């Protein structure tokens, strides 16, 4: 089965990205035909600093590879190394009703927050559809926030297939309810744009500061606490197996445990969990040429798959004459 997903290279990496998407993708390499890319075209909707985009792209590659992405077992590339997706995006635009895009929450939320409503932001889900369909992806693991974009992709695929015959695989979204939304420091969805993240690769001091900033209620130390309403617990459990989660739950319910104590434990847990990956990441970033070579090979592999589909699309649509 072909599994595909992408991640934008904007900003640093947080626990929401890791548990919501990256970890799953990395695990998929073992048994599935995994396609994973760095969505740098998409990042242009929020980033117009060329140096920052280039740097972010290299860092995103290092992040994925450090966390375990293996270019031998998967296809891993940078979106813009395959401009074919732009051609498909245009073709698919002609099967995209305006209303479908106008209804997208992500567009509405962003413009409501004061981001200029330009065409890139509006057409974003069409490009995302092209990313998915150009590889005949069967499954697309994403966080809950991308669910609607997957519905758009399915709609467009079906519309196109209705006109030209069964060209595209209609993709299935995969949203893991367990970690559907990783909460941030304030209990809202963890997101770069909300400034409520816990970052993966950050200095020890900064990490500690982030963990200590997790919002908790004023229940006194000695009283029992409700783990299900606690942001610290919701984040901590991502690192624990069932048994350990239950043990922590019992400590909450028993009382006598302060939030400071559990935050300190969580800080150590996160630091130790990511320390070996941080080391590997430093090594990778020290050799940007090596990273570029790996990405170029990945793009070559991806292009091979994309070209096959594009030949069919060009033929069916009459672009091949
Ligand atoms: P951000 O919201 O910080 O800008 P992105 O939009 O770049 O994050 O998300 C990259 C990937 O990580 C997507 O697949 C997204 O669904 C997932 N993701 C981001 N934040 C979370 C979260 N808090 N919980 C679960 N998944 C998340
Ligand atoms: N829109 C996704 C995000 O912000 C990134 C993305 C771009 C993507 N193209 C994709 C995800 C195709 C899955 C499939 O997180």
Which helices and strands, and how do they pair?
Layout: E1 2-7, H1 15-28, E2 33-38, H2 40-43, H3 50-67, E3 75-78, H4 84-93, H5 98-102, H6 105-112, H7 119-133, E4 139-141, H8 147-164, E5 172-174, H9 204-212, H10 231-236, H11 242-254, H12 259-285, H13 288-317
Parallel strand pairs: 1-2, 2-3, 4-5
Helix pairs in contact: 3-12, 4-7, 7-8, 9-12
The protein binds adenosine-5'-diphosphate (ADP) and tryptophan (TRP).
Describe this structure in words.
The structure is a single chain. With 321 residues, the chain is mainly alpha-helical. It folds into two domains: 2-181 and 287-317, Rossmann fold; 201-282, Tyrosyl-Transfer RNA Synthetase (Orthogonal Bundle), CATH 1.10.240. The chain has 13 helices and five strands. It has helices at residues 15-28, 40-43, 50-67, 84-93, 98-102, 105-112, 119-133, 147-164, 204-212, 231-236, 242-254, 259-285, 288-317; strands spanning 2-7, 33-38, 75-78, 139-141, 172-174. A three-stranded parallel beta sheet has the order 1-2-3. It has a two-stranded parallel sheet with strand order 4-5. Helix 8 links the parallel strand 4 (139-141) and strand 5. The radius of gyration is 21 Å and the shape is globular. The two termini are 33 Å apart. The mean pLDDT is 94. The structure holds adenosine-5'-diphosphate (ADP) and tryptophan (TRP). Tryptophan binds next to strand 1 and helix 7.
């Amino acid at each position: 089965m072909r599994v595909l997903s992408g991640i934008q290279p904007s900003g640093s990496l947080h626990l929401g990205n890791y548990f919501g998407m990256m970890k799953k993708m990395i695990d998929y390499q073992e048994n599935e035909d995994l396609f994973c890319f760095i969505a740098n075209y998409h990042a242009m909707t929020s980033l117009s600093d060329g140096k920052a985009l280039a740097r972010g792209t290299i860092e995103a590659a290092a992040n994925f590879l450090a966390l375990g992405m293996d270019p031998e077992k998967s296809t891993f590339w940078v979106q813009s190394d395959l401009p074919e997706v732009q051609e498909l995006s245009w073709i698919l635009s002609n099967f995209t009703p305006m209303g479908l895009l106008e209804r997208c929450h992500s567009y509405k939320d962003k413009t409501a927050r004061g981001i200029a409503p330009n065409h890139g932001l509006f057409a974003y889900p069409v490009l995302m559809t092209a990313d998915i369909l150009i590889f005949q992806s069967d499954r697309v693991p994403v966080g809950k926030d991308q669910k609607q974009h997957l519905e758009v992709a399915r709609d467009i695929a079906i519309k196109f297939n209705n006109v030209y015959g069964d060209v595209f695989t209609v993709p299935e979204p995969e949203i893991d309810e367990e970690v559907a939304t990783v909460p941030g420091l304030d209990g809202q969805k963890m997101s770069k744009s909300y400034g409520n993240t816990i970052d993966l690769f950050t200095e020890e001091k900064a990490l500690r500061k982030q963990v200590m900033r997790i919002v908790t209620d004023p229940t006194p130390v000695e009283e029992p606490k409700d783990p299900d309403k606690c942001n610290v617990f919701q984040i901590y459990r991502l690192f624990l197996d069932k048994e350990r989660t239950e043990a922590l739950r019992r400590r909450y319910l028993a009382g006598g445990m302060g939030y400071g104590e559990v935050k300190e434990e969580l800080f150590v847990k996160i630091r130790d969990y990511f320390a070996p990956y941080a080391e590997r990441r430093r090594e990778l970033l020290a050799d940007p040429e090596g990273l570029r070579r790996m990405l170029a090979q990945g793009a070559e592999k991806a292009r091979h798959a994309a070209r096959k589909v594009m030949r069919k699309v060009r033929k069916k649509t009459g672009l091949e004459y």
